[in-house]
Amino acid sequence: RQSFLRAFEAITQAESVGKKAFVMVGTTIGHYPWPNKPGAEAQNNEEKLFGIAALFDDLLGVLLRSLDDRGLGEQVLIVVTGDHGFRMRTEFESVGLKPEHGDAAFNVPFLLYGPGLFEKQIRLPYATSHVDIAPTLLALTGIRQDTWLHHGTNMLDPRLRDRVTFMMNTNLSPVSGFHWQGCHYTVNDLTRRVQMRASPVEDAELSEDPRCNHGSSKLSDDAVRSILQGASRQFQMALTYFQQRKDFAAKPVSSTTVTLNPARAARSQRASPTSVAPKMTRPSGGRRTSTNAD
Fold first, then answer.
1. pTM
2. From CA 176, how far away is CA 170, in angstroms rounded?
């Protein structure tokens, strides 16, 4: 409750000096083992999860009413989301599920509240990703993005329907997977077995376009393996690149080793293979990619 109170105070303090505030409220009570209210220790895990959701709902309601009382109810954009789905075997089994790639692991809740921008509810009939949140908020607030580099895209862009979104969850190893057009595709790295299943959550919302169920967009086993192999290479290159940056930043720098000449720096990189950053390439097939990562 104190976190939501501090968020309200930050918003109103910014408003009092004619500015806007960017506020994030993070919490850990939605993590396993699921907490319960004092005196409700006998609740089962489903009841505990419902209680956590109800608590968030109450706290958010208090915040919205407080903003309304200050005349700020239609001057805010509020995002409600989670950072990841189920990861550990104990989390799946706590609610009677089998640990696997699917909606419980892949999906997180996402709600964007903007009463001053939307006249009615919009339900997105395709998968989005955390990397899409920033571009969406920037677009909705009218902030120019043409000089910024984003990995994601405005969530209201219908082209996201055809984007491949990967699932990174090492706890489900050796199985890797991705989501495309309402389908979950997985590959077992040991047996090389490929599986495809429809997303039941998305099927209910895509009744007018159940492409996964009809098989019109089904990928071949070889295509699924190729997409995941290409993604794995790109993720490894990105990891190597940022690890090199981290290692370089950790080294002590003396005045004799610093250069401000870009051409000289480029020649130095070419002469030293270990310092060359890997070249990032587009995914095979021209599909746009995103990562739903913890």
1. 0.74
2. 8
pLDDT tens-digit series, residues 216-238: 557 899 999 999 999 889 888 98
Residue pair 137/81 in contact by the 8 Å Cβ criterion = no
CA distance 291 to 201: 19
Name the nearest CA neighbour of 99 among 44, 161, 32: 32
What is the distance, to the nearest Å, from the Cα of residue 33 to the centroid of all Cα atoms in its chain? 23
C-alpha 10/C-alpha 76 separation (Å) is 13
Strand ranges in 114-227 using DSSP code E only, listed in sequence order: 164-167, 175-180, 183-188, 194-198
pLDDT of residue 274: 33
Q: Parallel, antiparallel, or unpaired: how do β-strands 78-81 and 164-167 relate? A: unpaired
* Angstrom distances, CA of residue 122 to CA of 14, 117, 185: 29, 11, 27
Segment 5-29 shows an average pLDDT of 93
Dump pLDDT digits (tens) for 81-114.
998 899 899 999 999 999 888 888 888 889 999 9
CA angle 167, 208, 180 (to 5 degrees): 20
pLDDT at 269: 39
Quote the pLDDT of residue 287: 40
SS (H, E, C) 220-259: CHHHHHHHHHHHHHHHHHHHHHHHHHHHHHHCCCCHHHCC
| Cα separation, 165 vs 202, whole angstroms | 14
List the structure tokens of 215.
């098989």
Alpha-carbon distance 130 to 291, whole Å?
8
